Amino acid sequence: MAKFFNEMTADGLAHTASAEIREHYREFCGWLQRQSTETMERKRAEADLAFRRVGITFAVYGDDAGTERLIPFDTIPRIIPAGEWKQLQTGLVQRVKALNMFIHDIYHEQNIIKAGIIPAEQIYRNAQYRPEMQGINVVSDIYAHIAGVDIVRAGQGEFYVLEDNLRVPSGVSYMLEDRKMMMRLFPELFARNKIAPVDHYPDMLLDNLRSVAPMGINDPTVVVMTPGMYNSAYFEHAFLAQQMGVELVEGKDLFVSDNTVFMRTTRGPRRVDVIYRRLDDDFLDPLAFRPDSSLGVPGLLSVYRAGRVTLANAIGTGVADDKSIYPYVPDMIKFYLSEQPVLNNVPTYQCRKKEDLAYTLANLPDLVVKEVHGAGGYGMLVGPASTKAQIEDFRQRLIAKPDGYIAQPTLALSACPTYVESGIAPRHIDLRPFVLSGKTISMVPGGLTRVALQEGSLVVNSSQGGGTKDTWILER
């Protein structure tokens, strides 16, 4: 068995009588040992049924069946002690603060380019760079109002940032629904463990969005803008709008008049001040970006440029979460904050560099190779889990377009005991905490833990068959 850090047991074994249980898991493990297999199976079936009734599904693009899938939910939580969470939180706040400063800088003074820290072409040739944003001032200089930062553990349990999601990060609804489900299935666990709450996230999100309304707006109208019911994350869009008590709108529900965005209502037009948009830049305004987009609002960019509406996240934010920019984030932290990074990046080879490409080509069977614009677990090679044919296919891709890829060592991601068909077994996990930036930077204690359900798999994405767990941050 490959060596990896086990979240629950200090000796890396599955949950067995001989395993040395980590201190913060002991209370839970004692409870788990008293539960029968029949009880846990019944609870798992109850969770699946409840999730189907509520409609917590995930549409997979390109799925031949054309149906929505239930994201598997595991009843064994991922538990993080208070001290570890404090370190994580400090590092996440630091990182997101620097990323916001970077985005402001590249659309204004461009000091980081002038200092020679990031090559100009890495920004200006980036597919997510939006020249339309040059010189536009946004409220409080905040661009990434909602950030989902993917965290993994490797080695002896060290935390690493795997990637930054700053465009339209998803998954927070599953974090909230997983917690609600665990409290419903096992209320006694919450009476016996000091678990930090997460259910106030929608209130925090609404307060955060209201705090970045345009100047002079004292009682802002906030809406959630969705591409529509066929989007893979539509459940989340509707869920967050309902939880915040705001309108869920599509582009056709909004229009621009007198350099102002309005929402159509049964009582007539109503001004909109803050749009939490869940669609990509390209589709926001057919007059400015893709003219064939039927999802956006004609004229929206002109209102935005005038500072008369706030978009969360800001247009052009994606340049900072592109995988080609990721290697520079530690340098951003040092440059803008004059601090050492609290959280480390995964070592990364930039295949656009001759020496990095040579190393990658020579070590493909041992590396993870990712497209710089890829997402969702697509467009990547996991060397140790790939066939010779797949490796050779990627070799040709790298030779043809080296600047389109980065490579990283294959980390032995930490694992957490998980209920699978054969019983309880370790499965690899990651964590996506959600960081809110407005007048302050805030986050609920926790995040979405994703789990790779296939034995040995390192791909946790829901679109690739991954599941989710509740994440407990202990308050003591």
TrEMBL record:
The record, for SUPFAM superfamilies, names: Glutathione synthetase ATP-binding domain-like
The Circularly permuted ATP-grasp type domain covers 77-452
Q: Which Pfam families match?
A: CP_ATPgrasp_2
Q: Which domain of life is it from?
A: Bacteria
- Quote the protein name from its UniProt record: Circularly permuted type 2 ATP-grasp protein
